[in-house]
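A common beginner's mistake is to predict each chain separately and then try to dock the pieces by hand. The better habit, illustrated here, is to supply every component at once so that their relative placement is modeled jointly.
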Amino acid sequence: MARPEHGSRATTLSDVARAAGVSLATASKAINGRDQVAPATRRRVLEAAEELSFTPNQLARSLIAGRTGTVGLLTSDLEGRFVIPILMGAEDAFGAGQVNVFLCDARGDTIREQHHLKALLNRRVDGIIVVGRQTDPRPSLGPDIPVPVVYAYAPSADPRDVSLVPDNVSGGRIAVEHLLSTGRRRIAHISGDPTYAAAQDRAIGVQAALVDAGLELVGDVMYSSWTEHWGRAATAMVLAQHPDVDGIVCGSDQIARGALDTLRDLGKQVPEDVAVNGYDNWEVLANNSRPELTSIDANLQQLGRTAAMRIFDAIDGAEPEGGTTALPVRLVIRGSTIPRR
Amino acid sequence: MARPEHGSRATTLSDVARAAGVSLATASKAINGRDQVAPATRRRVLEAAEELSFTPNQLARSLIAGRTGTVGLLTSDLEGRFVIPILMGAEDAFGAGQVNVFLCDARGDTIREQHHLKALLNRRVDGIIVVGRQTDPRPSLGPDIPVPVVYAYAPSADPRDVSLVPDNVSGGRIAVEHLLSTGRRRIAHISGDPTYAAAQDRAIGVQAALVDAGLELVGDVMYSSWTEHWGRAATAMVLAQHPDVDGIVCGSDQIARGALDTLRDLGKQVPEDVAVNGYDNWEVLANNSRPELTSIDANLQQLGRTAAMRIFDAIDGAEPEGGTTALPVRLVIRGSTIPRR
DNA sequence: GAAAATACCGAAATGCCTTTCGGCACGCTA
DNA sequence: TAGCGTGCCGAAAGGCATTTCGGTATTTTC
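With all components supplied together, the output reads:
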């Protein structure tokens, strides 16, 4: 049958060389585009390689080159939707077929993380990207990793490490500034789990923007969980205590969905009576709500790309400066803050 | 400084051997638990290895062993939420640190897919899992791949390939049977994009279950898109034409969310007046709706695990039998079909 | 105490590719 | 025609770990 036996050894360079009637060295040079090979010879070698469907063994190559063209991506939680765009961005930056990504999911387990880390080092990855599931600092992998490490989304607790996070403070600020620009003045903030750094940071940005505008938050920041249930409950409370509220900044799109639900139930028009701003720009939620949801997008794909580029730089010998860098976020405007024309 | 220079060569086995005062061969045996080594010698070697923080170069190992302990996962679409659980299942089955997964996202681009495929083969992966984004058949990678290939979620168009898909027909059937078991008799089916095999298969299951019960579908199967918008619109249409409908089987959780919305708007109680069944068990949607959504879970993580096991079997020499296998799905019951006590 | 058996260690080959360096042949110049 | 470049090719080393097989020490057996 056409399918080559799985047991049969793959064709090696020496097979090609023999078929082309040249030495190993010449075959290697011909295939890798080195000079020192006559055009006719090169052609003969390439034809032989094609004929035998030769694929150079990257293992042997890497063994010599001392670098493998692979990067490990160590995540603590694949379920989290934040990991995926970051991963895509990184994959993107590495380019198709140039660098490949080893994906490891530690399931939030330190032991498993250590296992994976060791496996990655054994496989001689050129670098490691560590992706957390929330923006709270996480323990460093340690200072003794022999390859560059970049922490994405969740920064390392060790300031000497390189960490990239979305700018949540700025996100909170942008959300408020947008509501202000649509004429809102009585703005409430419904957030999620107060133990999350993201919740705190966004609240800081919200407050700062209000202060800059000479305004105050309507009521206190309301913390609980990142769910629709909480969004519904909190919105009901806000409206009961402050019926004149005209803008709600939500800590997540889920909360915002809940807010929309309750506003609808209570007969409030969105965005005419109350504008609602979500966070995360989770498309399936933001695009399908009534009305569609204005939201803050953390540019996670960009973050992944940046992480990959930092790895590249470090591989190329650039001395990385440690510390946490906050990357810009962006506002995506939809119908929940500005009426459709 | 403590951090080893990135440029400095990693410690090799011969470093360890020299430090322990033994030969390479002995060091290798000691570390790998082979016999032919005196306990005292073994201890000395292990101490030296620890001291130098020696990590065996997996590349060299693989070069000899002829297998790398890596598997490629080729997806056409990382954004799709179906890929993730499959990936987790596969990762799970491979075990922490035993087998590692190369993740490649082809972005739905054939050229890019070919690039990735070639890269994976160059890296001598032991097997490849191809994950599609919908259950429609996709082109085969071809018969000449020198390693085992399993197609997950999207089956290969070539029946000689090994494909694993969730059993959509059975899913449709289970959904209807569940509604029947709660006493519903007037059941409608709102589905998504009719060009999807998943939509057709689920509809077949729905019809079959109704026929078995001696019933007919209320109205025709309603096809359009997998969105909340469509769920809302279609539900309004159903209620207008068939006000006595008492059960709605939806083709996705998004559609079901839309259905719940409209039912609520029109004053129908769920589940008392109308029961609603979703599909996909997408937790963020199913758990946060009012009431929470009964849904069909495709057991994707299990599917990923199975795919990994098929790869293992093939690596171990089992001759795989081609063809598409439909794996069982399961019903997750929540408040949208059975009232909370 | 001598022969045989055992336990342990090390040199060398192996896997696959890249690169260096020596050398052959040809063409050009003086 | 002798001498010198230049272009092209091939032998061999090297990268790292594993394994086979031959060879010493040491112990056991009669």
